Amino acid sequence: MHPLRKNRPLRRIVLASAVTASGLVMLLALKPHTAPAIAVAPAPAASSSSGANSGTGSGGSTATGTRTVTGETAQTRWGPVQVKITVTNGRITDVSAVQSPSDNPRDQEINSYALPELRREVLAAQSAKIDTVSGATYTSDGYRQSLQSALDSAGL
């Protein structure tokens, strides 16, 4: 007679529990094959505008005036990220995300706390050397990459 056909419910319970636990462990051990890389798509040329402070500022690498420069679009795992900066007299005075992942409510939730934090970091650091926001790693990486291309275009 087969061991499971005997009237021993405790044995069946132990066996079913062991199989369930083994399956759960194998399921939790699954990991993606490779980490996706962040690709950069070319963006339109940087735009610049003359500032009211000095009257000049649309030149190549001048440190006076106000200029607005849009960085290249960084393609991340969850969608494109693109940053626009405003530079006044050689300092970053404003940063905003032109594009960010927003296809679903979770993306919108992440961006609601990540984008303001990234903006604060940039204005404090005055460079693309900023920390990654926890829970928004891909968005932070894309933001940093687009920011760096905008800074390069602005001559900073």
Defining key terms:
38% helix, 156 residues, Sufe protein. Chain: A, 3 helices, rod-shaped, 5-stranded antiparallel beta sheet, 2 domains, alpha+beta
Helix and strand arrangement:
Elements: H1 9-28, E1 39-41, E2 66-70, E3 73-76, E4 79-88, E5 91-99, H2 105-125, H3 137-154
Antiparallel strand pairs: 1-3, 2-4, 3-4, 4-5
Tell me what you see in this structure:
- It is a single chain.
- This protein has 2 domains: 1-31; 39-154, Sufe protein. Chain: A (Alpha-Beta Complex), CATH 3.90.1010.
- The chain is rod-shaped.
- 38% of the residues lie in helices and 20% in strands.
- The protein has helices spanning 9-28, 105-125, 137-154, and strands at residues 39-41, 66-70, 73-76, 79-88, 91-99.
- It is α+β, with helices and mostly antiparallel strands.
- β3 (73-76) and β4 form a beta hairpin.
- Strands 1, 2, 3, 4 and 5 form a 5-stranded antiparallel beta sheet that branches.
- Residues 35-41 and 43-62 have low confidence and may be disordered.
- It contains 3 helices and 5 strands; from the N terminus they run αβββββαα.
Main sheet makeup: 5 strands, antiparallel
Rg value? 26 Å
Number of alpha- plus pi-helical segments: 3
Choose one word for the global shape. rod-shaped
CATH architecture assignment name of the largest domain = Alpha-Beta Complex
Q: Which structural category do the helix and sheet elements fall into?
A: alpha+beta
Please give the CATH class of the largest domain.
Answer: Alpha Beta
Task: Enter the CATH topology name of the largest domain.
Answer: Sufe protein. Chain: A
Overall mean confidence score, pLDDT? 77
- Uncertain spans, ≥5 residues at pLDDT below 50? 35-41, 43-62
Q: What is the H/E order?
A: HEEEEEHH
Kindly, what is the distance between the CA atoms of the first and last residues, rounded to a whole number of angstroms?
82 Å
Helix % is 25-40%
Quickly count the domains: 2
Number of distinct beta strands:
5
Strand content: 15-25%
